[in-house]
Write a structure and sequence with these properties.
Strands 1, 2, 3 and 4 form a four-stranded mixed sheet that branches. This protein is of the alpha+beta class. The chain is built from four helices and four strands, in the order ααβαββαβ. The longest helix has 20 residues. The protein has a domain of 97 residues: Cation efflux protein, cytoplasmic domain (Alpha-Beta Plaits). About 4% of the residues have low confidence.
């Protein structure tokens, strides 16, 4: 290779390096922080809320905000309605849920239990401090009867 060819290649590499935008500087670490960060998205917090809220006795389901949301629920697609809203406020999180509760239960007791479960589970699993949990009861429904288990089939020995 000639010296001119090497110089041309070196200039091309230099030009490529100059074209690339510089990396932004890393954020300044907080006092006592080594610069690492853990961020938990609102969708993760909402998943925790959905999972444990539905385990509370007296909660039938999350309310859907619209007909479209109801249709999406029926066909198994997740709708992005407002049945779970997560708001970050500084170092804390506020959560609002809209529910359908079982007809005949004491609504304030079920709603209070939902608040306790959400607060406990979100703080336990995410480390986020829950400042507020708002529960809106949109509707009441009869609980669907659980299908009864079929009686066991007679064994071949019983017939002998």
């Amino acid at each position: 290779m000639t010296q001119n060819t090497e110089k041309t290649k070196a200039k091309k590499v230099e030009a490529e390096l100059e074209v690339r935008p510089p990396m932004p500087p890393p954020p300044e670490p907080e006092p006592g922080d080594e610069g690492d960060a853990i961020r938990i998205s609102d969708s993760v917090i909402a998943a925790v809320v959905r999972r444990y809220t539905l385990e509370v006795n007296g909660v039938i389901r999350f309310a859907t905000g619209s007909i479209v949301g109801g249709i999406a629920d029926m066909i198994g697609r997740k709708s992005r309605d407002s049945s779970v809203v997560v708001d970050h406020e500084g170092d804390t999180v506020s959560i609002s849920v809209t529910l359908v509760i079982e007809f005949g239960v004491k609504i304030p007791e079920v709603a209070s239990l939902v608040q306790d479960v959400i607060r406990t589970k979100v703080e336990e699993l995410t480390g986020q401090h829950v400042q507020r949990v708002n529960v809106t009861v949109q509707d009441l429904e009869e609980k669907q009867a659980e299908p009864e288990a079929a009686p066991p089939a007679p064994s071949a020995e019983e017939g002998d």
